[in-house]
TrEMBL record:
SUPFAM superfamilies: NAD(P)-binding Rossmann-fold domains. This is NADP-dependent mannitol dehydrogenase. Keywords: NADP, Oxidoreductase. GO terms for molecular function: mannitol 2-dehydrogenase (NADP+) activity; oxidoreductase activity, acting on NAD(P)H, oxygen as acceptor. It is an enzyme of class 1 (oxidoreductase). Residues 1-21 are annotated as: Disordered. The lineage of its organism: Eukaryota, Fungi, Dikarya, Ascomycota, Pezizomycotina. It comes from Neocucurbitaria cava. GO terms for biological process: mannitol metabolic process. The keyword tRNA processing does not apply.
Amino acid sequence: MTATNGNGTQPKSIRAPNPPLEDSVFKMFRMDGKTVIITGGSGGIGYEIARGLAEAGANIAIWYNSSKQASKLAATIAKDFNVKTAVYQVPVENHDAVESAVEKVIQDFGRLDVMIANAGIPTKAGGLDDKIEDWNRVRAIDFDGAYYCARAAGQVFRKQGYGNCIFTASMSGHAANVPQEQACYNACKAGVIHLTKSLAVEWAKWGGRVNCVSPGYIDTAISADCTFEMKEEWFSLTPLKRDADPRELKAIYLYLASDASTYTTGSDMVVDGGYTCR
Ligand code: NAP
């Protein structure tokens, strides 16, 4: 709609132009030819995100830290979906390593469209008797690492005038979920949620988008050591009375990564079986 001012002339608007859009909603979700970095890409959630995006046509750079399976998983994705994949060993708490790996991905793939900063550890830290070294390690990976990945990719995105970052936060950034005591993890994930909102405002100036996903309990290696009793307590506090298969997160990451979400930025997508709505 065109507005006019008092003397009938058309005032200069600050309104940004709408992006080109597909009419078909399924086409909006396509990722053909785009390059996506996924940190923690051979982990439980990361691998399923990678599969979801590859199925939609994206080429995938899997970042891992200590996994022995990363190359095999990347080869499986390439074969299953006929896309290009590659693996990079990148400790996300090392800023220089993150910056170099972003450059390497661009050399190898020719472009970068999406950064998914998903790596994280849940080590108990932040309690009165917990070790300071554990606090520092959890913060370095879960919070500093998330920022380093966004920063390195964001510098590329700003030059391009487009690009999009997705963090894996957690419902633990919303609630101090029990019975496990993990104050540092919870605080880092709350920090990631606010980092999402803050960067979304800054990046919007040049066309970048930033969002996060806050999963509830997802059945991956991260909770493999948790006891039966602990999990029973989780289920009793979750309205859907279960944890999730990581495949139940694929669609939300695809939405955020694709042009289906061109007007979504600064959002925190909570996928937690209802845990935090009680
Ligand atoms: P996971 O299977 O244990 O995956 C964790 C991933 O983080 C692994 O791929 C691991 O890579 C990577 N990682 C750990 N330390 C790293 C480091 N220093 N540098 C780079 N990568 C590192 O657990 P997940 O459930 O998929 O977790 C993925 C994300 O979801 C985490 O951020 C977690 O906090 C979040 N989350 C999980 C749940 C849940 O219930 N599962 C709920 C909410 C949020 P390597 O294996 O190569 O070392």
